[in-house]
Amino acid sequence: MIRAGLAALALALAGGTAAAQEVARAPGAMLRGLDKLTGTLTDMQLSTGQSAELGYLTVTLGECRYPVSNPASDAFAYVTVIDDRDDRPVFSGWMLASSPALNALDHPRYDVWVLRCNNS
Q: What is the mean pLDDT of the chain?
């Protein structure tokens, strides 16, 4: 219930930003994963619809958007994370680069967050 409220707040904030600024879709995004057990960081450059493995998780990028007036300022990406051990989603929603804790993956071993959209 709290996660749904946070997701709604994130979309409202992103929607408020989108209303004030023109937003564009990017063909991909750069995400970063952290294995909290080993301390290993993994950068994942994904195109829309593409997936990457992070340990026993599959991370899929649905879409990435950014403000047209300042592409480097912020990005928000729709990400789905599936636990391969039981084929269930452990996260599905929008992540904001400027506020990674606002709607974060809640997993005991891994963290995933969006760094930026790829505009090229």
A: 86
CA distance 40 to 67: 31
Residue spans of the domains in the chain: they are: 2-118
State the Cα–Cα distance between residues 36 and 108, nearest whole angstrom: 8
What is the residue type of 28?
G
Distances (CA, A) of 91 to 6, 20, 55: 13, 28, 15
Using one digit for the tens of pLDDT, what is the confidence trace for 2-30?
Answer: 555 445 445 555 554 445 679 999 999 99
- Nearest partner of 79 among 93, 96, 58, judged by Cα: 93
DSSP 60-106: EEEEEEEETT-TTT--EEEEEEEETTTTEEEEEEEEESS-TTTT---
pTM: 0.79
Greatest Cα pair distance, the chain, in angstroms, is 42
